[in-house]
Every structure is written in structure tokens, then in C-alpha cells.
Amino acid sequence: MALEHVGYVDLPPHAKPGGFDHAAVHGGRGLLYVAHTANDAVDVIDCTTNTYLRSIPHLTRVAGALVDEAHDLVFTSNRGENTVGIFSPSREETVAKVKVGIGPNGLAYGADHRLLLAANVGDPSRQGSFTVSLVDVSTRAVIANIPVPGRTRWTVFDAESGRFYVNVADPPQIVVVDSADPTRVVDAFPMPAVGPHGLGFDSTTRRLFCACDGKTLLVVDARSGAVRSAHAISGVPDVVFFSPAFRHLYVAIGEPGVIDVFDTETMRLLESVPTERGAHTIGFDAVRNTVYAFLPDTHRAGVYRDQPGSRRTA
Question: Cβ(66)–Cβ(73) under 8 Å?
Fold first, then answer.
């Protein structure tokens, strides 16, 4: 067994349809921030006690949260108002908002250049609305809106190369933006599976983990874009997290409601952990090796702890 279920965290009831979306953890502070889309808020969980603390309101249709511990910042993508939010965990009541493209969703941050990338899902009825926005966090200003060929999904940043990787659903590909020249797409990797969605990154092996709507997990060389292997998963995926400590990959799948756990050294599926139907999003605390699955029907988080030695014995 890789993940052990250790409890639940009750969260505020949904005020309207929408459930939860992307989450991020500030490991040093022991705080998890999860987009509670149904409540136009970000819920805050204490990871040391696994308790709900409070909610940060007025984030319309918030779709994602991202943490940068080096600069002690939290970012949110507020899809309903086409903004990104920027605040410090020590001043959560003061959220700076920056207008970006249509429907910001995925977020990635390049700390060296203080660049935030917002991957915008766009509007199919509006020509040219599929974009990524680059925000200078120091000046709270958009410095570029870059066209991409289709609806974006999640995005990650590689600090070593200075490159952002962004999943595009259709045509299925991963596009690349360089933080040293953040005005254009510098490369694009075609993906041989329908609907690239969740995206993870292993900085040690320089591999991207691209979970696709075609119920396929692709392992991709981040330098060349070559697809190294493909693996079946239990359903249509959403959020992906990689554990450097255990070399595990966690793939959230809303239907039937499981987390697929892979050993990334062998790419063997270790187990599929039941969560709850519709639970398409997770958070990961790398300090405490804990996975949080956000359960929309019961408006709570399931808490799962990864186990030392589980990679060898599962």
C-alpha cells in the first residue's frame, strides 16, 4: 500500500455548483490553499493538524492556487473575473489582482525573473482568445499575452532551464515559453493522446508527466519533447503531483473517483486509491508526504499519507 487514509478535513458547504479545483501547499508554513470554486474563495487548511482554518473570499470562480515559498507568495487564477490574485500568507486579506487573458486556469512561477504564467482556457466563440499571460510580479503588470493553438490546461516551470511547459488540449501538445524571452512560444511537443490535462515534472530526470483525457499517462523528455513511454490510467485525469522523496506520481481521476499511484522509476501502477466520485483534484504536501483529495459531494478533504518504503514493497 502506497497511500494510507488517515482522516478527513471538513470544509465549508458549497454555496453554488462548482466544487473544488487546484490546490497548493506552503510547506514551511504548513498551510494548504485550495480553490473552492463553488464559493468564490480559497480555503486554507493547517497541514500540521489537518484542520480547516479560514477562507479567503471575493475570488470569482477561482480555479487554481499556486505557492512560491522563496518569495512567500500565493497566486490564484480567478476565472470568473479574468484576473490572477497575488498575496502573502502573512497578509491574506490583501489580495492584489491583475487582469490577464480570458479564463485563467493553470499557473506557474519563475522566481528568478519574478514571472507568473497564467494559462487561459479562452472562449471558443472569440477568435484569438486561447493565450497565456505573463505577469511581472514585481510591478503587478502583464508584459505579454502569447497566442497558443488551443485551450490550455495545467502548466509547470523548470527552474534549471527557465522554461514554462503548458498543456494544450486540442491540438494535443505541450507548448514551451522561455522566461528569458517571454514573448512567444519557443517550442511545441505534439502528444500522441487525446486531451493533455494534468502536468507534473521531475527535475532530477528531466521528465514531464502528462496525464491525458484519453486515459493515458505520457512520460515526456522535457528537453526534446520525445515521448518515452505511455501508460493506461483508471479514467479521465485532472491534477497530477510528483513526490521527489518517494518517486511517486499521484494522478487524480474524478470518475470513478480514485488516485492512481505510479512508481516513477519503473512506471508501474502501484495502486488505485478510492476517494469519492467527482474528486478530480488533489493537493500534495511534500514536507509531510501527505496527499489531500477534495471531495465535492461531501465538501471535505480526504487525507492520505504516503509511507516510507512503499515504493519498494507495494
Answer: no
